[in-house]
Amino acid sequence: MQQVWKQTVMGVIWALVLMMAGSILMSISAMVAVAGALFGSSGAAGGFGFLTIVCLLAMIGGFVWFFINLSKFITIQQTDADRSAISNVRTSYIIFIVGAILNFIPVIGWIVNLICALVANILLIIAFNNFSNSQFMNPTGRSGASLLKVQAIITLICAILMIIPVVNILAIIGEIVALVLLFVGWSKVSNGHGEVVL
């Protein structure tokens, strides 16, 4: 069971890597494709347009892989409290995705996306706070869940700072810190399998 636990959490981590890499590369290739089209370079526009589609598919694949592993992680929890906590983590990411989709609504989309981000981060903070008090995980796993709670708090603050002129530069710095905590936290959770249920 310990090996299944670790493999499942590592699946979550690599899915996050794939999602983020796909998102970043998609943004870059899309900008290059648009620039190529504007400056009359149809070959570059077409090539980077194709790369944009590939990156989009990679990002979608990462999302699917992430939710598959997170759903599996719920099923291998040893207590009802832990299952509930990870279920809330999954729900929060669903809210994130809904917000990102609704962001495309003209005029009010960004407001809806912001509200979804705030709700999702608050839910994440509660979920990881509960998970950090797990009776099953070892101290390493609990410390990882605590880091993920801090990451969610920083992300929540950054979401608010992003809409405030001048200080929004702090949000970029905060997002970098949160990204590091995200991977360190999940890595610790991957080694958090307990031996017995207390």
Record the SSE blueprint:
Layout: H1 2-38, H2 42-75, H3 80-102, H4 109-131, H5 139-161, H6 168-190
Helix pairs in contact: 1-2, 1-6, 2-3, 3-4, 4-5, 5-6
The N- to C-terminal Cα distance equals: 17 Å
Q: Helices and strands, in N-to-C order?
A: HHHHHH
- CA radius of gyration is 19 Å
The assigned structural class equals: mainly alpha
Discrete helix count: 6
Could you characterize what this model shows?
With 198 residues, the chain is mainly alpha-helical. Helices cover 82% and strands 0% of the residues. It is globular and about 60 Å long. The mean pLDDT is 86.
Task: Provide a quick synopsis of the model.
The chain has 198 residues and is mainly alpha-helical.
Features of this protein?
82% helix, single chain, mainly alpha, 198 residues
